[in-house]
Specification:
heterotrimer, B: 324 residues, mainly alpha, 1% strand, C: 293 residues, ABC transporter involved in vitamin B12 uptake, BtuC, two-stranded antiparallel sheet, 72% helix, disordered C terminus
Chain lengths: 420, 324, 293
């Protein structure tokens, strides 16, 4: 009998708690999530989805969106055709008014096109194709910087951080540009080349593209040796970064710094797994990694960043969120802020709320701030990015220096066996 | 003579689709079935009827997609003209491949077609100044029929239905006309056909060129429908395999086969994706395993595809004296 | 000018790798008249074999090479029994699509089991370089080249002088006549397939300390191996070795002279040209390309 009584009490309490929560969040608000979850891009797509889920739970613990509980309808975007189909499905079948996604540049173009034909807001959190926001589509927004932004940051780092440490003025620096020839590689490299030349007058001594499935990069390395650059700006995917690094070492290619951008290549954990301490030295532009000082964020930014990191640790067991978590999660949090301000998903009012947002660096997850331009692109200067360096077999944050406890090492890189 | 009523039913059902169904997602599925079916049928003209199996047909698809997208973005030319230009270019390249097919048989021809599509892929992804390189081309949406800026899915159904029906008729012609019989003779035994005075070489070249042009037309419509042209997708070997897969699964060298195959694949793919969508399951790519196995099993037990296989089984089961 | 010795050395080492993949391909192509589109996937499986033996058992890839031989051969035999035997007398197209299906399935299995991440076997000697005359040669690549030459020579000798080899050549020339002479062509095909797969599996094992492995790695090697096979002439081991060196030379030289971006076009055009002008390959007999039907 006692047991039954207790069970009744527990049941009532549970009901009461449930009712309370239901009171706090009246009803559900559904948005569409579009990521590649099968096929060759799936590994990264699933990381993004995980990031969305983590931040969705954070959002629901903090009042949901527009007073409602945020829920997802998930679509699987394997290739451009399917991405468009799934965007249509989310808009019509699931009746969502907002779709967010899709980390790959080959997918976001087709998906957002389909979304705009259904009059659905497309809230992009990664895909770096610069033309994504330049098609005159009013329903398209992007929280992450685009490929030109990556190039902008890399050149900023080379000009303002590396050049005087290498004892040269920016216009005396000899820079070589090497890149795999995907959409990502081309857009980052071209914008970096342009800014390096026009704004800083750096000397471009080589510019070369290759396919990431190339089997031998020795000829490229020989050419680079002849060009004798101070800095190598190298955008790579995973396997070619590994091949290049091994063969560069074999050929004893001595460059003073290697700078990369993004979560592939030198920015991927695969690189560290492949080389351990032998991979020390190269830089990769990413979201904040180990060593970042969260105390330097603004108070509201500190709170949400810490909650985000705790949630990532609870879900994955890792102290450091992966890049996919950070891009997706950071973008979704900004969507909550916009929706709370707009109080509606009506495109005109939503757009007005987006344009009105003005938050300084350090206000949100990843230490991001917000200022969208007319095309729907968040600004380079507000979406703070960080330079990480391989040190001791690990990527650690080294720049901007006011945000980190670590300092960049090996400038210039020096001999291959002395980077321990 | 094989009956055409299954095809009539199929196309009539497709035509009724937009009237009965309002759900944009189902209509989207129908459009893709018709579009992939039409592409597989275009492949079938060369691969099935002329016996020239190509694993490089994505090259033509890509030519069609790129022609319209480039003309549209660079010079604001109507995609209908882009379609014609793409088809024209594809015809030209089709003639070259056709010429090759007269020198190369079996595996050699297959390898040549793959190499050909790879060359186009490299040109499209490296020639930055003209094609925008790897970044691909977003197809601008300009409302109107002349610009193919149609948001209404029902209109798209009828648009691709016209193309699909046209391809069905082309195949029916190849099955029943004198030219078609000659082509069949060439496919079965080229030397014998030659000795009977059949212009084998010219027929093969013509079939491949026609197949190329039709594939390009499908590519143009696809690009306008999906709205983004990515070189690594439109010129990929995977896409080429997909075209033949539909034709082979449904029934190689039959007019309705490619459409049946495309329907099966699209439905299978969509439902498997929904079922094994990889959310937490850790089973990413499991539908590709099923794909591969289905292909192997089909080759083993029904190498001519499902339609001929069904027809054969019905014949076997039918009692003596009746016709199937 | 100073680059020429290094470019030559790179050509030879890269050519060795291509040759190792091409010999198995050309054997299967020559005897069975099957274009094996799943060849690259067996390369990938060989690399994963070496990777897991290294990661789980701490086994050096060259130990795996010896101990893994029966495993690879057995796997090849099994894949023949399960997949190829039922279609061995079917048309080219049926065979081609069977191997395409096998390729799709194997790649997807690897993706499900091991994810799309790049894995690398970092042996203690992965960065050991032999230097002389200003040329740097990676030790593992020298080993791969040696294995390639060894395997090509062994296969060549086997095909030329052993009884089984003669039987295989007889089957290659005319399978019907061979069957009439009392040759069990079914067993010949099984053996051919298994030996061909063993070659490419071994290639995978020796490539593991050189290249990172991931599920779709097969394609980037096998497309080039096809060029070498056609260039060298159908079923010609020695031709495949020479052609592999030629293709590697075009790749390395083209990469250095006209730029990496366009080097693939060079060997693809070379491939198409050879197909058009001399379909039987540089060293093959004319007309050999049409006896396959």
């Amino acid at each position: 009998m006692r047991h039954v009584k207790w069970a009744v009490v527990v049941g009532l309490v549970a009901l009461a708690v449930g009712a309370l929560q239901a009171q706090q969040l009246s009803g559900e608000y559904k948005i569409g999530i579009l990521e590649p979850l099968t096929g060759p891009l799936a590994a990264e797509g699933k990381r993004h989805l995980e990031g969305y889920e983590i931040v969705r739970d954070l959002i629901n613990e903090r009042g949901g969106v527009m007073g409602k509980k945020l829920v997802f309808a998930v679509g699987d975007a394997v290739d451009p055709t399917v991405a468009a189909s799934e965007a249509t499905r989310l808009a019509t079948r699931e009746g969502v008014k907002i779709i967010t996604g899709t980390f790959s540049s080959t997918l976001c173009g087709a998906a957002s096109e389909a979304a705009s034909r259904q009059n659905v807001i497309y809230w992009e959190t990664s895909c770096v194709d610069p033309r994504f926001t330049r098609r005159g589509l009013r329903n398209v927004f992007r929280t992450e910087i685009d490929g030109t932004g990556f190039g902008w940051y890399n050149v900023e780092f080379i000009a303002k951080h590396l050049s005087h440490r290498l004892g040269k003025k920016p216009n005396e620096l000899r820079v070589a540009f090497l890149s795999e020839d995907s959409s990502y590689g081309q857009s980052v490299t071209e914008s970096a080349r342009q800014r390096a030349k026009q704004e800083f007058g750096m000397q471009e001594v080589a510019a070369e593209y290759y396919t990431f499935t190339t089997n031998d990069l020795t000829p490229v390395i020989l050419k680079l040796k002849n060009a004798n650059p101070d800095v190598l700006h190298h955008i790579a995917r995973n396997q070619d970064a590994i091949l290049f690094w091994r063969q560069a070492r074999e050929q004893n290619f001595q460059v003073k710094a290697v700078v990369h951008a993004g979560a592939t290549g030198y920015g991927s954990p695969d690189f560290g797994k492949a080389f351990g301490n032998d991979g020390n030295g190269p830089f990769a532009l990413l979201e904040p990694g180990p060593g970042v000082i969260i105390d330097k964020f603004r108070p509201e930014g500190q709170r949400i960043e810490r909650a985000f990191r705790d949630a990532v640790k609870a879900k994955t067991g890792s102290d450091i969120p992966a890049g996919g978590h950070q891009l997706a999660g950071g973008g979704l949090w900004l969507l909550k802020l916009v929706l709370d301000a707009a109080k509606t998903d009506d495109l005109d009012k939503f757009r007005a709320a987006v344009m009105a947002m003005d938050m300084p660096v350090g206000s949100s997850i990843n230490g991001w701030g917000v200022k969208f331009d007319e095309t729907g692109q968040n600004s380079n200067a507000r979406v703070q990015h960080y330079m990480l360096q391989w040190q001791g077999g690990q990527l650690v944050t080294v720049w901007p220096e006011e945000f980190t406890t670590n300092r960049a090492k090996w400038i210039p890189l020096g001999p291959w066996d002395q980077r321990k | 003579m094989r009956s055409t009523w299954p095809a009539v039913t199929f196309f009539a059902a497709a035509a009724l689709g937009p009237i009965v169904v309002r759900d944009a997602f189902l209509l989207d599925g129908l459009i893709l079935i018709l579009l992939w079916g039409a592409t597989a049928a275009s492949w079938n003209v060369a691969g099935g009827y002329a016996g020239q199996v190509s694993l490089g047909h994505a090259a033509f698809f890509g030519l069609g997609a790129y022609s319209a997208a480039l003309l549209g973005t660079r010079w604001a030319v109507s995609p209908w003209i882009g379609l014609l230009v793409g088809a024209g270019l594809a015809t030209g390249f089709g003639f070259i491949l056709g010429f090759l097919s007269n020198r190369l048989r079996g595996p050699y021809f297959v390898l040549a077609t793959i190499a050909f599509s790879q060359v186009l892929l490299i040109v499209a992804s490296r020639w930055r100044g003209f094609t925008s390189g790897s970044e691909g081309i977003p197809v601008p949406f300009r409302p109107g029929f002349w610009t193919l800026g149609i948001a209404d899915k029902r209109a798209w159904v009828y648009l691709v239905l016209v193309l699909a029906a046209l391809l069905y008729l082309v195949q029916l012609y190849l099955e029943r006309s004198r030219r078609g019989y000659q082509l069949a003779a060439v496919r079965e035994d080229e030397d014998a056909a030659l000795s009977l005075g059949v212009p084998a070489r010219r027929l093969k070249v013509a079939a491949i060129a026609a197949s190329a042009a039709l594939t390009a037309a499908c590519g143009t419509l696809w690009a306008q429908y999906v709205g983004f042209v990515d070189p690594y997708y439109v010129f990929s070997v995977d896409l080429s395999v997909r075209f033949c897969l539909a034709a082979i699964l449904g029934g190689i060298g039959t007019p309705l086969g490619p459409f049946l195959g495309a329907a099966l694949i699209t439905i299978l793919e969509t439902s498997l994706r929904a079922r094994f969508g990889g959310i937490g399951a850790g089973l990413v790519g499991i539908y590709l395993i099923i794909y591969g196995v289905v292909l192997i099993v089909t080759m083993r037990f029904a190498p001519q595809g499902l339609l001929p296989w069904i027809a054969e089984h019905r014949r076997r089961r039918a009692p003596l004296g009746t016709t199937a | 000018m100073d680059a020429i010795p290094q470019l030559l050395a790179s050509t030879i080492l890269l050519g060795g790798i291509y040759a190792l993949i091409a010999v198995g391909l050309t054997l299967i192509f020559g005897v069975m008249r099957v274009v094996n589109f799943a060849h690259g996937e067996f390369l990938m499986l060989g690399m994963y074999l070496a990777f897991w033996a290294f990661t789980l058992l701490g086994m050096d890839p060259y130990v795996t090479l010896v101990l893994g031989l029966p495993v690879i051969f057995g796997g090849g035999w099994l894949s023949y029994r399960l997949v190829m035997r039922p279609v061995i007398h079917a048309s080219h197209n049926v065979q081609i699509f069977t191997t395409v299906g096998l390729s799709i399935a194997l790649q997807a299995v690897a993706l499900v089991l091991w994810s799309a991440d790049s894995q690398f076997v970092r042996t203690g000697y992965y960065a050991v370089v032999v230097r002389f005359l200003g040329v740097a040669l990676n030790l593992a690549q020298i080993a791969a080249f040696a294995v390639a030459v060894l395997f090509t020579a062994a296969l060549f000798a086997f095909m030329r002088w052993s009884y089984t080899g003669k039987v295989m050549r007889a089957t290659a020339q005319d399978r019907h006549a061979a069957a009439l002479m009392g040759i069990d062509t079914g067993r010949v095909f099984a053996l051919t397939w298994a030996v061909g797969i063993t070659c490419v599996g071994v290639a995978g094992v020796v490539l593991a300390p050189i290249y990172p492995v991931y599920p779709s790695i097969g394609l980037q090697f096998v497309l080039i191996a096809y060029v070498a096979v056609v260039l060298g002439g159908l079923g010609d081991m020695f031709g495949a070795l020479i052609a592999s060196l030629v293709v590697a030379g075009v790749e390395v030289g083209g990469s250095y002279v006209i730029g990496t971006a366009w080097k693939e076009v060079l060997y693809l055009l070379l491939f198409i040209t050879i197909l058009v002008i001399r379909p039987a390959g540089l060293f093959g007999q004319r007309g050999a390309e049409v006896i396959g039907t």
